[in-house]
Amino acid sequence: MIPEFEKFKRFKAKNLPKEELLAPGHRACQGCGEVLALRMAMKALGKNVIVCMATGCMEIITTPYPQTAWEVPWIHIAFENPASVASGIESAMKVLRRKGKISKKHVDILAVGGDGATSDIGLGWISGAFERGHDFTYICLDNEAYMNTGVQRSSCTPYGAMTTTSPPGKKSIGQVTWKKNVPGIAVAHNIPYVATASPAYFLDLMNKVKKAALVKGPAYIHIYSPCPTGWGSAPERSIEFAKLVVETKVFPLYEVIEGRYTMSRKISKPKPVQEYLKGQRRFRHLDEEHIVYIQQRVNADYEKLVRLSEMT
Amino acid sequence: MAKRVGIEVSIALAEAVKLANVDVIPAYPITPQTHIVEHLSEVIANGEVDAEFVLVESEHGAMSCCCGSSAAGARTFTSSSAQGLLLMSEILFIPGPMRFPIVMAVVNRALSAPISIWNDHQDIMSQRDIGWIQTFADTGQEAFDLMLHAFRVAEDRRVSLPMIVNIDGFTLSHVVEAVELLSQEEVDQYLPPFKPRYRLDPKKPITMGPVGIPEIYSEAKVAHNEALKASKKVILQGWKEFADLFGRQYNPIETYRSEDAEILLVTMGSISETAMTAIDTMRDKGQKAGLIKIRLWRPFPGPEFRKAAGKAKILAVVDRCLAPGAICGPVGAELRSLFYKVPGAPKIFNFIAGLGGRDVTVERFEEMIDKATAFAKKRPKELYEVIGVREK
Ligand SMILES: Cc1ncc(C[n+]2csc(CCOP(=O)(O)OP(=O)(O)O)c2C)c(N)n1
Ligand code: SF4
Ligand SMILES: [Mg+2]
Questions:
Q1: What is the CB neighbour count within 10 angstroms for residue B259?
Q2: CB contact under 8 A, A76 and B206
Q3: Which of B216, B240, B340, B390 has its CA 20 to 30 A from that of A83?
């Protein structure tokens, strides 16, 4: 067991921190799931943190110079490398503390990237940082495409989804590959903490972020984040989709603590995937046959997870 | 007290980094840079310096990690060559405008294809405009001294810019030379601890690396360029104080038998040593030949170069880099711009030599001087010539 988790006081609706460390006034679209998740993550972490961010929507909308939405130290270097930047900061603070050049007090380090930054271009950088064992948390804000550059597909784009580079047509149904299992890749690095989260379950999300920060060594959280602009969904339905994705077993919530899987929310009476898919323009072209296929794979993936949680 | 030892130049350079009491070294191996990082790993493992060696997964990761480390206020060093330097390229443009005083040793090597581990300057010339201060060392002693100078200049609050010291792969990095290693006390006298003006600190939150909207981008780029140009004052001051303390004087432009010269060879890096021998031979034959060595490449010391060129009628400029499809090599182009429409300017001819480890001998330098002399009488079709290429 992880000793830090024993004394950890969970967030409840009653004790939510009031302070906004990601200040309002940023330029995110209405109903943006990423900025909502990030805001909650920051509430969970508190002020004693340094944030390293990848190029992408969240970087653009929070820092058009001379404005900034950040009330905590924040750094952006490039698209693929927040895990490496975090590695540098962590190493620097370690040695500066040893040499008595900065305060001995621990500071949390958070790296944040979109699904593109995480699952595609930055995967090797993240792998390196996990393997080296730096004490930091990596959050992937997964809106299932490269949104900042205009909705191109990533390897986290779900099967069948329409993006500008996976357009459905006579010879294609849209995205032809299945979503990459990035949390599984993180687990394979034997890091102490991996979790998935959704902003619809915000207390669960905040508690997971807090645990990730508490644990010594690397931690990874994959957060599903609705993007009304890129998905062609109604901004006011973002939270609803963030809930449906869990209730349909499309995006299961779980934790992997020192290699042991635990389902955060067991879905005994799942809703059909169709309920999740409808209302999003990116899935509008899918016919019955595709939906049956998606349902089968969703069921199979979920079963695999349940088996993992029973085994470990 | 300083001690004079016979030592491999890579090791001497690494010793300077150790004596600088470096904090963080993110690095990735590539020939011919490896001996530097291997030696640093060793001195850290032996507890000779308290530093974090970050075993990054690539050079891109190394430079990204350097940015984080420097932003957190640590004295940061890395080293690379050729393909490694190019893999860093995206990130190399970032610490300049962000004012991170990262120090790097570039052990110059040719670029693929074809793959070659041997020396020339194509790697650093491809990264000419990254906005770092760049110097070139010709000898082991210079490599050691310039490394300490680099930390001091880069971290000076009036500068706050990243800095590269270039050394030639193998022909300098792997040779054993007599080098006077300064003692810890001497280094401490010259190099103050790094005190960054800004650092990532939850007590004083700042935003680093925000979006440069069109209303601000030009100003940010100009501010960086101005800082780079203004760094020359501190670079010179750093060299003067080094001379005052240790007796070795460095200059942005170094000269050899140039005072009354009518024709000047222009070189950068370790081939300058051979070039000096060539000058002696030419002088013995009665030719008024001299040598200019460019030590400070960025910011380019224009006035110093013009002064050093004096009244020479011809410059035979040696480039260690072929710029495909260009009018001439990068150093050649720089000097042509410098002298454009300057009254009494020398005629400039460019020779590309020593690509991918091809030896540049005394005879080759003599050939360049002879050719430049002939070209001055009859202008050649092309502004450059690649020296020593086999016909078949
Ligand atoms: C090396 C490099 N390649 C491509 C880009 C262009 N680019 C910037 S952000 C981005 C997409 C970001 O997608 P994601 O990581 O999913 O974040 P999102 O914007 O969706 O939050 C791309 C392709 C870049 N900045 N750098
Ligand atoms: S495009 Fe999507 S992810 Fe980006 S700010 Fe808008 S809603 Fe958020
Ligand atoms: Mg995305």
A1: 9
A2: no
A3: B216
Between helix B82-92 and helix B59-71 the angle, nearest 10°, is: 40
Chain B hits for A123, CB-CB cut-off 8 Å, are: none
Strand ranges (DSSP E) for A58-192? 74-76, 108-114, 137-142
With CA atoms as reference, the chain B residue closest to A86 would be B68
Question: How many A from CA of A226 to the centre of ligand 2?
Answer: 8
Residue A96 confidence (pLDDT): 98
Query: Where along chain A do its domains lie?
Result: 3-311
Flag residues of chain B having pLDDT under 50. none
DSSP state of B271: H
pLDDT of the residue at B391: 85
**CB A44 less than 6 A from any atom of ligand 1:** no
CATH topology of domain B3-246: Rossmann fold (3.40.50)
How long, in residues, is chain A? 312
CB pairs under 8 A between A and B: 159
Interface ipTM: 0.97
Residues with CB under 6 A from ligand 2: A 28-29, 32, 34-35, 57, 61, 143, 147, 227-230
SS3 letters for A158-182? Answer: CCCCCCCCCCCECCECCCCCCCCCH
Which H or E run contains B120? none
Give the SS3 label for residue A23. Answer: coil
> First vs last Cα of chain A: how many Å apart?
13
Which two structure tokens, joined as six digits, stand for A265?
């929310």
Q: DSSP alpha helices (H): ranges in chain B?
A: 9-19, 34-45, 59-71, 82-92, 95-98, 122-126, 140-155, 184-190, 214-246, 271-284, 302-309, 330-339, 362-377
In this prediction, the residues of chain A whose per-residue pLDDT falls under 70 are none
For ligand 2, the distance from its centroid to the CA atom of residue A57, given in whole angstroms, is 6
Domain ranges of chain B: 3-246, 254-386
**Residue A126 CA, ligand 1 centroid: distance in Å:** 16
Q: What own/partner pairs with CB < 8 Å and gap ≥ 24 does A130-133 have?
A: A130/A83, A130/A186, A130/A189, A130/A191, A130/A218, A130/A220, A131/A189, A131/B57, A132/A87, A132/B54, A132/B55, A133/A191, A133/A217, A133/A218
Could you tell me if A186 and A197 are in contact, meaning their C-beta atoms sit under 8 angstroms apart?
no
H helix and E strand count, chain B: 13, 16
Kindly state the tokens that stand for A48: 């004693």
Residues B328, B333: Cα–Cα separation, whole Å: 6
Considering every ligand atom shown, identify the ligand nearest to the alpha carbon of residue A122 and give its number. 1
Picking from B65, B94, B206, B215 by the largest number of A CB atoms within 10 A of its own CB, the best residue to mutate is B65
| CATH code, residues A3-311 | 3.40.50.970
The yes-or-no answer to whether B3-246 and B254-386 have a common fold is yes
Chain A from 66 to 95: CB within 8 A of any B CB:
66, 68, 70-78, 80-81, 84-95
Q: Is domain B254-386 classified as CATH 3.40.50.920?
A: yes
Cis before residue B113, ω within 30 degrees of 0? Answer: yes
Residue A299 near residue A272, CB atoms below 8 Å: no
- Most informative mutation of A142, A144, A147, A164 for ligand 2 (most atoms within 8 A of CB): A147
